[in-house]
């Protein structure tokens, strides 16, 4: 494997922590080459379909980029050996506990263990968390030592990017990783909250999509990837995060009527269901 | 301590018959006597008996049929005491509530107020009577707290809020009587558990307070007698139970089963075949109530009656989903005697007086003898005249069920559900409520809690675990100490610390979430004349009439253009707008989406026994309609009829599948559990089952392998299949993953205060804040399988949705009594359940299969290795 930067064209909006003021969305453009050197992106895996990991996945192209959706709820981008994950909502349990709902305090570790499982499966060179990685601004400070260790271990030897979200507008404390409001890689743009009039090729989270299938008087509800040829919204990965039906008004304007798919998460497989078949 | 008296209406002073008296009954104050005389009445024996015992300081349970003057009996001691007590003088502090009346229904409390005002006004009694329900405006509640009425009529939920208050002691400072109306309907639910804890608190506040329970006839009155008084107190050798006064039923009801000239259906519950005959029966009566079991049946029957209503009889519809305004209109029309018939579900089961009903028609299976008796009692409120009732079975098994219930009714047998030990989630809610009321010592609270009958066997350890759950969630990981809701504060002057709220906000949270009734989320259904649509759906439209509320899960499965029956008409689904379902009128005659769920009760054990006995005894078949007895006779020829103690299992092929039918008669819930476990076992035995369906009467499993041949070859053993060890590991494994357990967990989590109720207007907005209880369940099960809330969930499911106890009884009963009949084709007895396949939900059918069917995975499958 070569250490040389890939020939792909990158553009990105990055942010310097020191210049960050709460509520202000200041963006800086870093030098492309400098960033690429930091990323040390590898060339794509030579044989896309050889690995057993692909069993049960669905391959979906957004803006021409082929992405692998895994039933654990992550996206693997073979071109860059990159894992994308949305809405981890770490420390959601503790956050709710503070307001009087004493949910079991195991959600952070459960989420991280599931994430580690995915990373062990895909061995990505880089990981991009698409925002709302922490349930509140103090969550990263509050992170139990065990969770911090586990996270550090996953981050070691990898490029790790935190995209900011509405729950975590501030960069996490003492955790490392790059922090961006949004990021452009090849023909894709990665951000937390999907934008209605944004460019094609958007990968986002925020909405926690779930879909509902009715057959023979029975219904199945599952969290899903909502995806068209120009956009994909990832399911939420966090252990306590509820979902929102893809036909909720919050999705209005993001997809062209019923011309999209829900990649529904089964127990061991992702099922690709046309929106027209959902309810 | 128990005193039992049985009184029959024949010994009634009102009817002038002499009555044998054990002792002289108390004289009434002349104001009361005059009032009775002015009405042309005389006080009845049970009214006087209850009064005397109340004067003696005893708590009592009064069991009497409707129309026996039960309510007046309950209030008489209070009214007399209030009449005789010294006048309140200006300048004295306000007096607290003297008598608390608790009813299961808001409407009943309001109705009682009306009925009570008449004697109070006519006798000029110095008594203030007020209601306090969820509908009471806040300024009135506020005023009531400062200046409580003498008699307060309220609901269990309001009592929970009243005692969870710093001022509870003052509010109840003069409490003398607590009256529980329709006690039988309260005690078996979690609502009753919470109420029993509330009663325990009232006893702690006012040890001299007396309770009076009013109830319809029940199977075990002693359960209710114990419920009314404190347990685990004083002398352990004494039976702590309230006294009992029973008034025997009046004239025997005249009940018949509709003997239809039409062909009796094999399955289904609609009684479509008998609509014409039902209509003729209505015409023969002045006013009739038509009871059905589910809301969809009510809608169906109502539609079909109006289709043939040539005489334009005023026939109305009444069920729990309808708009409150519409329901009130129907009730008012009933009271005015302006209706000839009303089709109703269990919403009309209880208490309120609905005018001169002279006929009850019960359509479909009665499900329980006591339930049927209560419903029949709705006809005719004068107890010395017989009520008239007609049972209309909707299919052949229901004929036998009706017959069994009818026999039971004549025999006066009761099969009310048994009492269950107090639920732990309810206890958790109560503990927090008591902390809201003020600081408490844990041993004091424990003593109080175990004085409530449902909790009398609670152990200290479990209580402590509930306490810690309330404080910090009760997790092994102590991360939430700093977020504790209640904390133990050590007191310098006492050895034991006191538990206190950590923040006033917790009290507010408690008040918003108190109660044990959590209904499935429902949406208002709004009827518009027409709907404008734009590209996205329904254009903003105003107005329209609210028809009522329906469950979200039902509405969500609809697509634009679907038609369904609701509020007595067929409507077309247009879409959902801002949390309302929009519908328009349609000319369509046949609704496309026929069913929405309603309450379904399982068949009671008692009726099941009777049906088994009836089937096993060909001598009794001549009492059944010819169509039914012929059906049973052919069964004996083509297969076999099981004896009373036997369990019949039939196997036969049909189409490309093989079927196994089990005739166990244990009710739908137990059958669903049995079906799940059976299929698991058959799977393990490699018999390749692919699905099952369960009814109240039997279970049918089908699969790809010839189960009959496997059984005959000895490769499969029924004794092993139905062994009791099924309820061991298999049950554990299945329960853990069961969606029913998740549903139960959600209930428990809401009641125990782990998660908060969604409040109207607040829901949906905070989707990032909402928590999926399914996911919480998974996480908790993984990390703390023995958590108190999981324990509560399992106990709940075992008695409730899964009916494990009943399943256990069945397995024990049929040991060595299973007979197998391998047939070439379907047997007569199997026809009804075969027809249910595809109609009833097939429980546990793999969701993944559904997904796979709909998935367009071909491309990706071709591309993946």
Folded structure, characterized:
Chain A contains five helices and 17 strands. Chain A is α/β, with parallel strands linked by helices and 279 residues long. Chain A is globular, with a radius of gyration of 18 Å. Chain A has one domain (10-277). The relative contact order of chain A is 0.16. In chain A, helix 3 (107-122) runs parallel beside helix 5. Chain B is an alpha/beta fold. Chain B folds into five domains: 4-247, P-loop containing nucleotide triphosphate hydrolases (Rossmann fold, 3-Layer(aba) Sandwich), CATH 3.40.50; 254-411, 3-Layer(aba) Sandwich (Rossmann fold), CATH 3.40.50.300; 428-513, Orthogonal Bundle (Arc Repressor Mutant, subunit A), CATH 1.10.10; 526-585, no CATH class; 639-738 and 802-850, no CATH class. Chain B contains 33 helices and 28 strands. The model of chain B is unreliable at 8-21, 760-769, 840-845 and 858-865 (pLDDT under 50). Chains A and B meet through helix 2, strand 12, strand 13 and strand 17 of A and helix 19, helix 28 and helix 32 of B.
Topology:
The complex is a heterodimer of chains A (279) and B (865).
Chain A: E1 10-13, H1 32-39, E2 58-62, E3 65-69, E4 75-77, E5 82-85, H2 92-98, H3 107-122, E6 126-129, H4 139-142, H5 145-155, E7 159-163, E8 178-180, E9 182-185, E10 188-191, E11 202-204, E12 209-215, E13 218-227, E14 231-233, E15 244-245, E16 261-265, E17 270-274
Parallel strand pairs in A: 5-6, 6-7, 7-8, 10-11, 11-14, 12-15
Antiparallel strand pairs in A: 1-9, 2-3, 3-4, 4-5, 9-10, 12-13, 13-14, 13-16, 16-17
Helix pairs in contact in A: 3-5
Chain B: E1 4-7, H1 30-38, H2 45-55, E2 60-63, H3 70-84, E3 99-102, H4 106-122, E4 129-132, H5 138-146, E5 151-154, H6 156-163, H7 168-171, E6 177-180, H8 183-186, H9 190-205, E7 210-215, H10 221-228, E8 243-247, E9 254-257, H11 275-283, E10 288-291, H12 295-307, E11 315-318, H13 324-335, E12 341-344, E13 359-363, H14 369-376, E14 388-392, H15 396-411, H16 424-437, H17 442-449, H18 460-472, E15 486-489, E16 498-501, H19 504-513, E17 522-527, E18 533-534, E19 537-538, E20 545-551, H20 552-556, E21 563-566, E22 569-577, E23 580-585, H21 605-616, H22 626-638, E24 647-654, E25 657-663, H23 668-684, E26 689-694, E27 699-703, H24 707-712, H25 718-721, H26 729-737, H27 739-752, H28 773-783, H29 788-799, H30 804-813, E28 818-822, H31 831-836, H32 847-854, H33 858-863
Parallel strand pairs in B: 1-8, 2-7, 2-8, 3-5, 3-6, 4-5, 6-7, 9-14, 10-12, 10-13, 11-12, 13-14, 17-23, 24-28
Antiparallel strand pairs in B: 15-16, 17-20, 18-19, 21-22, 22-23, 24-25, 25-27, 26-27
